[in-house]
Amino acid sequence: MSGAPLLEIRDLEVVFDTPAGAVQAVGGVSLDVHEGECLALVGESGSGKTQAMLACLGLLAGNGRTQGSVRYAGQELVGADEAALQHVRGTGIALLSQDPMNTLTPHLRIETQLVELLLDRGLATRAEARERAVQALREVDIPDPAARLRQYPHELSGGMRQRVALAIALMGRPRLLLADEPTTALDVSVQARVLDLLGNVCASGLGLLLVTHDLGVVAALADRVAVMYAGRLVEVAPVAELFAAPRHPYTAALLAAVPRLRGDEYGRLPAIAGTPPRPGQPAAGCAFAPRCSHAVQACRETKPDLRGLEPGIDVTVACHRPLSAVAQPA
Amino acid sequence: MAELLLETPPTRRAGLWLDAWASLRRSRAAWVAALVLASIVVAALVGPSLSRYAIDAVDWTQASLASPPSFANGHWFGTDTNGRDLFVRVWIGTRMSLLVAVLATVVSVAVGVAWGATAGYLGGRVDGLMMRFVDVLYALPYMFFVIILTVVFGRSLVLIFLAIGAVGWLTMARIVRGQALALRQREFVEAAIALGLPARTVIARHIVPNVAGTVIVYATLTVPQVILFESFLSFLGLGVQEPLTSLGRLVAEGALEMETSPWLLLIPSIVLGTLLLCLNFLGDGLRDALDPRRPR
């Protein structure tokens, strides 16, 4: 994890213009992803994690505006023109999306979808591209790849389609993969295989930005974790550190809400009281304050900034009253 | 390619077009319609050369200029009021009607699909501008437009094609634009954009084939419309010029003589009617065949 980061996000803001006024989906997110590193971005639905990721590739909906800076290998992507973005997409940053049922174009053979980027950019001849397509399918554990090339998406199972989608994303040999809840729509056994494959992807030196709300996936795959709440980062920490000693009360509450096999068998699953704030109604203080059992007056009045905690520990947290490493919440 | 085919296990090789083809073959009405249509096309192509008469040759040997159908004298469909062989004229006319129909349909599909898909995909202001342009053309009184064109440039075949083509793509553009607008939101289109493909590739490869079903069906419905429209133009005297003819003209001329020489009306009407019926059946069959929700 040395050298310049592959992806450098600074103060990223995403605002949507709606008939009801401007709605901020992402407010001031700063993150780094290095080569060979898996950074997980977690948060509940609507916390802005997907929008933050789409903003990196300039893929926001028409009414979305992006501010701040996203640098890929030193190249600024916010405000870059469509041609430059197009060049980065696929061969620089690839995207793997959530729903394997709909990400493949239904009327095109698997082969066409695998090779089209290479042929379109003139990166390979047809024969080379087919060769690489077979190889790419083999790398994602698709049996009998040569036969699969001739099939249509509806002839493959959901897990297979997600693996084919991964193969397509990797065809352009990107250096960074953005994965948006890649396992959500799959059953557990298939999830495990896809997670293995994503692990291999990281091991081969790609940077991986994994957007998920599944803490199990995070524990299995991530090197570092960034927790988002209401469009802002609340905690960024190495995965072991985060699970062992969450510093932000929201992270702690999130971890406490994960069902466990051992423990109080008949107890109720702890839930976080209240509901997340609605976007477009920003709070003056910490967005989590209304639901936080540790909140004091300061929390409701001023927004905490993301700051380092103790020297020597690579944890940053946006909280006026971070939990100490020793005192765990009940 | 050959190697790949050999390696491929005998899995079901289904695709949109193969499915559609199989489904079309199973639909008897569409299949019969296609066969009849094919024979009409063949007749239009080879028919005139089977007869010993030319399209503009007047046969003075008959008792009256308009003689009824007869196998003895070689006028299989009889002759018209000018003594010209109707068999030759009907098939030449069919040729003309089909030519107008095919050309207008090609323009409608090519321009309409490209225009509509681009507008729908790009959306926003570009979409607004492109579709307002279509609206403006829509608002022009069509007949008036054609009449002015004919008056200014004189009557010519090319002009008829242009006039029909210029307006024929408008509805197609609207239909395709609506579909493209919806497809734009689909995940696989977003995935294609995220893959770094340029807009033209996304439109051509990921959007247009998806609207193929609708486009083909609408195209088969356009053909009869255009044939009827050409007949209408010819009826008004704005269509093709003598000695060339079209089915519409023949019917119009026959209608004048239907009390004395009914075959002049009946024969071209039967050919025109059969043609339109077949195209409509074929369009119906294609629509069913390309509808993915239809149980197979």
Please supply descriptive tags for the structure shown above.
heterodimer, A: 330 residues, alpha/beta, 4-stranded antiparallel sheet, globular, disordered C terminus, B: 296 residues, mainly alpha, elongated, disordered N terminus
Question: In terms of topology, how is this protein built?
Answer:
The complex is a heterodimer of chains A (330) and B (296).
Chain A: E1 7-18, E2 21-33, E3 38-42, H1 49-56, E4 64-72, E5 75-76, H2 82-88, E6 93-96, H3 110-121, H4 126-139, H5 145-148, H6 158-171, E7 176-180, H7 188-203, E8 207-212, H8 215-221, E9 224-229, E10 232-238, H9 239-244, H10 249-256, H11 297-301, E11 307-308, E12 316-317
Parallel strand pairs in A: 3-8, 3-9, 6-7, 7-8
Antiparallel strand pairs in A: 1-2, 1-4, 4-5, 9-10, 10-12, 11-12
Helix pairs in contact in A: 3-4, 3-6, 4-6
Chain B: H1 2-7, H2 16-26, H3 28-50, H4 86-122, H5 124-139, H6 142-153, H7 157-183, H8 187-194, H9 199-207, H10 212-235, H11 247-256, H12 263-290
Helix pairs in contact in B: 2-12, 3-4, 3-12, 4-5, 4-7, 4-9, 4-10, 4-11, 5-7, 6-7, 7-10, 8-9, 10-11, 10-12, 11-12
